[in-house]
Structures are given as structure tokens and as C-alpha cells.
Specification:
Blueprint lengths: L4 H14 L3 H15 L18 H19 L4 H4 L1 H10 L5 H24 L2
Helix pairs in contact: 2-3, 2-6
Protein name: Globin domain-containing protein
Keywords: Heme, Iron, Metal-binding, Oxygen transport, Transport
GO molecular function, one term: metal ion binding
Length: about 120
């Protein structure tokens, strides 16, 4: 699947609007993932507090969204733009690639909830 120029512009425009709240979005998505998929906690066993919204979860949620914003910036060449991040997760942290789908799902669920709340408020 490839994105058209229009698709890429829509992605950039969307993330430009939410980038100021990236840390909050990342925190909510990561917190939700750790609650809904407790097996994911094994990747963060070195953290002292894995509870939703803890300082470590908030910090890493912001890092995750920073990675997504990096992907948006490099949308025309994701392979090169995300090479360092890919190598870190694949070879050093040894994160199973299937787990990124779980985190992506949680980001989408959170954004869908925000969208629903906003559509109800501004109807």
C-alpha cells in the first residue's frame, strides 16, 4: 500500500494539530495497553511503577509519540527516516514487531474516543 500525495498531506495536517498533545495521547495509549494487555509489562519490568499515568508511563508515552511524529516527518522515506529507531527496537530491545500493532491499536482506540467525545460536544 502506498499513500498518495493527498493522503500524506492529510496525515501531516492531522499530526500537526495533535502534536501539541502528543505526550497526553502517548500516555493514554500506553496506559491503556498496559492495562488491556498485561503481558506487555514484561518489556517494562525495569520500571518501578507501571500504573496508568505514572511518571515513567507518561515519559515513555511522549517518547512513543515523538517516534510517530518522526515517522510523519519522514513520510516520504520511512525506511531511512526510522532506521535508527527500528534497529534499537529490533536488535537492542528485542521487541516483537507484532507488539507495535497492539500499541497502534491502543492509540487508535484512544483517538476514536476523543473523536466521539468531540463530535458529541460540538453537534
Amino acid at each position: 500500500m502506498s499513500l498518495t500525495a493527498k493522503d500524506k498531506n492529510l496525515v501531516k495536517a492531522f499530526f500537526e494539530k495533535v502534536s501539541g498533545r502528543g505526550g497526553d495521547i502517548g500516555n493514554e495509549a500506553l496506559s491503556r495497553m498496559l492495562v488491556a494487555y498485561p503481558q506487555m509489562k514484561t518489556y517494562f519490568s525495569h520500571w518501578s511503577d507501571l500504573s496508568p499515568g505514572s511518571a515513567q508511563v507518561r515519559k515513555h508515552g511522549a517518547v512513543v509519540m515523538g517516534g510517530i511524529l518522526l515517522a510523519v516527518e519522514n513520510i516520504d522515506d520511512l525506511t531511512t527516516g526510522l532506521l535508527a529507531l527500528s534497529q534499537l527496537h529490533a536488535y537492542i530491545l528485542r521487541v516483537d514487531p507484532a507488539n507495535f500493532k497492539i500499541l497502534s491499536h491502543n492509540i487508535l482506540v484512544f483517538l476514536a474516543a476523543v473523536t466521539t467525545a468531540l463530535s458529541e460536544k460540538y453537534r
